Amino acid sequence: MWVASDNGILISGIIFDAGPENSPVLLQVGNQRGHDDHGHHGGSDPSGIYDVFFRIGGAEAGSATISLVVNGDNAILDDIWAWRADHGAGVGWTDNTADTGLIVNGDNVTAYGLFIEHYQKYEVIWSGNGGTDIFLQNEMPYDPPSQAAWTEPGGIDGWAAFKAASNVTSFSGYGMGSYSFFDQGVNIYAANAFEVPTNLPTASMNDLLTIFLSTSGFGGILNVIDNTGGSSTIANPDTPVTVVSYP
Q: Does residue 229 share a domain with residue 180?
């Protein structure tokens, strides 16, 4: 589904199931690369995406490169669950392929309650300025078959759950968590759960955590954010590793 992001557009109460033919995007709000929300209104009648869910596999075989792209400014997201299935029908590293759950390109976008799980690259990419996210729940993919299969460009172990792009100069995040349970019997590591530009204003990111979910898992997350915060591995299972404020 593609919709224009004119003021007051409301999308609510929909579940998108990816189909067997790969979809580039399941839901795109706003035209490509556009800040086309009639910004002279100052966001007084923003678009809303409420209670919208995405499934990649699980119910049936399916693939989708990106689940949700938000291009318009001032949009409000409330209760977004984007799930690359870890169980059910059509599940496997090369079966229910999905790169990213959410990409935000618009400015001044606010999200309340993001649940983004098991995607195979950056799970959330936030490229707009002035954004806010209040609560993120993430599980990294359970099923990378090897470290080589799950490595960021430049050879960085794993993929961060949340990536604020290098052009972002302002973002506020509150209560954001990422958990690992790598279950293929080999050690898989993510260098960081969160990656943001180091020139963000002080205390842009608040109350971040990682958790090593199960003692039957392998590997883990080596730092909470930008090589800061320490690791969650078999050495400290089921224990939150926290960064209260960053940078």
A: yes
* Judgement on whether residues 80 and 149 belong to the same structural domain of the protein: no
Q: Could you give the number of structural domains in the chain?
A: 2
* Backbone φ and ψ of 208, nearest 5°: -105, 150
Asked if the structure places residue 47 within a domain, the reply is yes
Query: pLDDT of 208-235, one tens digit each?
Result: 999 999 999 999 999 999 999 999 999 9
Q: Is 139 a catalytic residue?
A: yes
Cα–Cα distance measured from residue 110 to residue 118, given in angstroms and rounded to the nearest whole number: 23
- The residue segments making up the domain with residue 22 are 1-85
Same domain for 218 and 125? yes
**Nearest in space to 120 (alpha carbons), one of 190, 26, 171, 70:** 190
Catalytic residue among 123, 139, 152, 195: 139
Q: Do 79 and 186 fall within a single domain?
A: no
Distance of CA 39 to the CA centre of its chain: 26
Task: Judge contact between 207 and 176, C-beta under 8 A.
Answer: yes
The answer on pLDDT for 42 being more than 70 is no
Q: What is d(CA 33, CA 16) in angstroms, rounded to the nearest whole number? A: 23
User: Which residue's entry shows tokens 């049936």?
Assistant: 60
